[in-house]
Amino acid sequence: MQKFQEFLEKYFVPIAMKIGSNVYLNGIRDGCMITAPLMIIGSIFLLVAFLPLPGYAEFMQGIFGLGWQRSLLYPVNASFDVIAVLTTIGIGYRLGEKFKLDGIMVGVLSFVGFLIVTPFEAMIKIVDMPNEILIGDIIPKVWLGAKGLFVAIIVAIITTLIFRYVVRKNWVIKLPEGVPPAVMKSFLAIVPGFFAVVFFWALRVLFSMTNFHTVHEFVYKIVQTPLEHLGNTLPAIIIAYIACQMLWWFGIHGQMLVFNTVMGPILTALTLQNYDAFVVGQTLPNIFTLKFVDTFVMFGGSGCTLALVVVMAFMCKSAQIKDLGRMALPAGIFNINEPIIFGLPIVYNPIMFIPWILVPVVCAIVTYTAMSLGLCPLTNGVNIPWTMPMMFNAFFITGLTGVFWQLVNFVLAFLMYLPFIKMLDKQYRAQEQAVETEGV
User: Fold this and answer.
1) pTM value?
2) What's the structural domain count of the chain?
3) Candidate from 29-43, 233-247, 317-331, 360-374 with smallest mean pLDDT
4) Domain assignment present for 309
5) What gap in Å lies between CA 306 and CA 323, rounded to an integer?
6) What pairing do the DSSP bridges indicate for beta strands 121-126 and 133-138?
7) pLDDT in tens, 333-347
8) Residue 106 resides in a domain
9) Which of 188, 197, 241, 366 has the most crowded Cβ, counting Cβ within 10 A?
10) How many Å apart are CA 85 and CA 82, to the nearest integer?
């Protein structure tokens, strides 16, 4: 175990730390987090429209009439269906901040760049009045949502790079001292903004001459689709869970680094695809989503520690473990497990290493198998808060059958943690008895 730990510390941890400190990955993570409140708010309306209770839809229709669900989807569409737009603004803003630039202006220019590369479609509308026709352009909604997510990320990064390069070269318009700061910042952004707009305009023109026709088509087919297929496989998810748990074992926030940063954009796109299918009554396409992670494999926090907390609180004899378990139980119910990770501790604890790694992997395999065989519904794309307690979260995204499978995972985690925590409990109890004996 000692040699394995030294190997990981020498090769694995430095790589993880380098990834975790990458300013662009951090900017993507923080920028995507800007969309979280809006998606949660939209999900509340989505839950009200499609609450998984027998007879609920008929009951609401009897009160509000036909079409009652459609009115509830307006806030949903205003958040989920423009996730790419929100993402490009958020990432541009956060990256601008990290490079000490005008974050708001970088975010706005990222939005403009996204619109430039997004294809418009001609619209012809015949008005009721005789011989009156309206001609204009519309933006296809398909590229504003999940399918445009990776273009949004790329555009925000390129905009930041252009803005930063121009500012560092000092190719900016400077106004005399005494000019209001807001005016000063606006003029400072003219030249970087011009370069960014010209770049994305040229990019759009160039792609219009290719077989892909648009930047969106190219990125979706060449980049986004392969990554989604890769991220939607069991081996990829298992590797991600192992990496996440190993980082936590070394005291590094594995959830933030692996699932919020590296896997975040992929799982977000897969989640939104399920949402798109759910609202129109189609078959849900993806097993692995953001809420698959939170609900079935990380209940109580990374490592399914709610089961561990219950073992500690009610099955252990040492005062240290028992008291810690009972103290951490309220936080564990809301999926917060830092008291266990650093208090037990999990970090650098050789006894807890094996179950810490294996428990989420086993739960992922069991849930994947159940969903693949049709025994458990797939997650519906609703973006409930990650702090929602166990069983409630499963009910809202999969219904009662999902609650059953979440309980199956809980029992498996309980049984896998039990022998290892009992070994640790025996050690702690012996230490406490030795102290008590010395005190006498």
Assistant:
1) 0.81
2) 1
3) 29-43
4) yes
5) 15
6) antiparallel
7) 999 888 888 888 898
8) no
9) 241
10) 5
- State how far the Cα of 88 lies from the Cα of 159, in Å rounded to an integer: 10
Q: Which two tokens stand for residue 91?
A: 């990432």
First to last CA, the chain: 37
Quote the domain boundaries for residue 16: 1-24+232-440
Amino acid at 325: G
Rounded Cα gap, residues 30 and 24, in angstroms:
10
Choose among 318, 329, 263, 328: nearest CA to 290: 263
The residue with tokens 């609202």 is 279
Instruction: Summarize pLDDT for 15-53 with one digit per residue, the tens.
Output: 767 776 788 888 888 888 888 888 888 888 888 888 877
For residue 46, CA distances in Å to 90, 132, 276 come to 23, 39, 12
Q: What angle do CA 297, 302, 412 make, to 5 degrees?
A: 45
Give the separation between CA 381 and CA 398, rounded to whole angstroms: 10
Both structure tokens of 103: 């974050």
Structural domain contains residue 100: no
Dist CA 360 CA 354 (whole Å): 11
Nearest to 31 by CA among 108, 88, 100, 72: 88
